[in-house]
Specification:
Distance between the termini: 99 Å
CATH topology of the largest domain: Aminopeptidase
Pfam families: Pepdidase_M14_N, Peptidase_M14
Family: Belongs to the peptidase M14 family.
Strand order of the largest sheet: 13-14-16-15-17-19-18
Number of domains: 2
CATH superfamily of the largest domain: Zn peptidases
Keywords: Carboxypeptidase, Hydrolase, Protease
Cofactor: Zn(2+)
GO molecular function, one term: metallocarboxypeptidase activity
Radius of gyration: 24 Å
Bound molecules: zinc ion
């Protein structure tokens, strides 16, 4: 009897204690999965506060990307998540702002599929703290919605299977032996091989995950039922590469400005990047066949850009014809990139002042080496806004598709002769 009372009291006491966080399970951080990157700074089990810093190796690019799994959450509890970006101050000899690693809103998920944004965090110099109430025992947090090599492969396979117009192919294998998945989309056959060709690629900079979501939105729209998508795929053959820098995306490294040069400073004859080499070869072949008309390279820009924008060719570097095509493409884009996330008014350039290696930037390589009727564009989609989540990014991808369809209603090859 007495022992029953003791047991009852003990049980009551245990329940009472466990309603506080004192006997909550320990919070545990892991990042040993594809795309993961986090070095634990501190875990305060009582305050339920987790502090990490991005764990990328600076030789493989700016260490601004972070992505980790948190276990031991009591469903319904509020977690404080801190990211310390002190290592960004000096990376690869460059002074970098912590802004690159600290979005206003972090990306979070309880299943690694649906990604939402946290509420805006509280910033204090080189660190930021976000607060999230989580109704699960496990959650994932990241700089932005992740898109890893298996997502690229799954996207290519899924569309290959579900759409009669999409065909998956392997662009190449990387230096580390990983496959670079890609897709072509076209409708109705191209027996005489004269159709216009469009090339869209993302993630020359591995940490810019939003670019792959923009690309996914583009290609899903392109394989869908919108009559304008049907029109575009009947007129063109579209090539799409969801992730160019597969290796750094897989290992959770930043990629941007890696040593000795990154993918988007690697467009020259002896490039060490297999994806760039394979892309250059295909693009050159398409241009020799007088088929290539547009090349779009997808990126995420600096933290303070609120809207999407295109980098265009410096006025002094393009011919009259090239400038005309570029202006027509931008005008078509302005009609499609509407509220709530219109195109930025300004059109910056990537000329000699932008980067000493500007000639080796993909869009500039296109402008220098392809025929005058080819537009080469970099689309930068803002990542630090309330729209910068999968749905918002995919909307930008659809708009890119609409802009291409509008622009290509007139075949740019018909109003000029070849320039080389
Ligand atoms: Zn970039």
């Amino acid at each position: 009897m007495l022992s029953d009372i003791v047991k009852g009291v003990a049980a009551f006491f245990a329940i009472a204690v466990c309603t506080t966080t004192l006997c909550a399970e320990e919070l545990r951080v892991t990042s040993d999965f594809p795309g993961g990157s986090a070095q634990v700074v501190q875990i305060d089990q009582t305050a339920r506060r987790v502090s990490i810093r991005p764990a990328g190796d600076p030789q493989f690019g700016w260490p601004c990307w972070w992505y980790f799994r948190l276990d031991g959450i009591q469903p319904g509890e509020t977690i404080r998540l801190e990211v310390v970006a002190d290592q960004l101050k000096r990376t690869n000899g460059q002074a970098l702002s912590a802004n690159w690693a600290l979005p206003s809103r972090a990306a979070m998920s309880i299943d690694q599929k649906q990604w939402t944004q946290t509420q805006p965090g509280v910033r204090d110099k080189d660190r930021a703290v976000w607060t999230a109430k989580i109704d699960a025992t496990t959650a994932w947090f990241a700089w932005g919605p992740p898109f890893v090599p298996s997502d690229a492969e799954a996207l290519a396979k899924r569309l290959d299977k579900s759409s009669p117009h999409a065909k998956a192919f392997t662009l190449c294998r990387t230096r580390a032996g990983r496959v670079v998945p890609a897709l072509t989309v076209t409708e109705g056959g191209d027996d005489d091989g004269t159709r216009m060709a469009v090339w869209v690629q993302a993630r020359q900079h591995a940490w810019e995950s939003g670019a792959s979501w923009v690309g996914r939105g583009f290609v899903e729209w392109l394989t869908g039922d919108d009559p304008r998508a049907v029109q575009l795929r009947k007129q063109t053959v579209v090539y799409f590469v969801p992730i160019m820098d597969i290796d750094n995306t897989a290992t959770g490294n930043g990629g941007k400005n890696q040593r000795p040069y990154d993918h988007n400073r690697g467009w020259f004859a002896d490039t060490q990047w297999n994806a760039v080499k394979a892309a250059m070869q295909k693009l050159q072949a398409l241009d020799q066949q007088q088929r290539l008309v547009a090349f779009i390279d997808l990126h995420n820009p600096g933290a303070n850009s609120p809207r999407p924008y295109f980098y265009v060719a410096a006025p002094s570097l393009v011919s009259e014809q090239q400038r005309g095509h570029q202006e027509r493409f931008i005008a078509a884009s302005r009609l499609e990139f509407v509220e709530p996330w219109p195109l930025e008014k300004d059109l910056p350039t990537t000329g000699p002042q932008y980067d000493p290696l500007w000639k080796r930037i993909s869009a500039n390589w296109i402008r220098q080496n392809m025929r005058d009727h080819v537009v080469g564009m970099t689309l930068e989609t803002a990542w630090n806004t309330p729209h910068s989540h999968p749905t918002g990014y995919q909307m930008i991808g659809q708009r890119l598709g609409l802009a291409l369809e509008r622009y290509l209603r007139t075949d740019p090859r018909t109003d000029e002769s070849k320039n080389q």
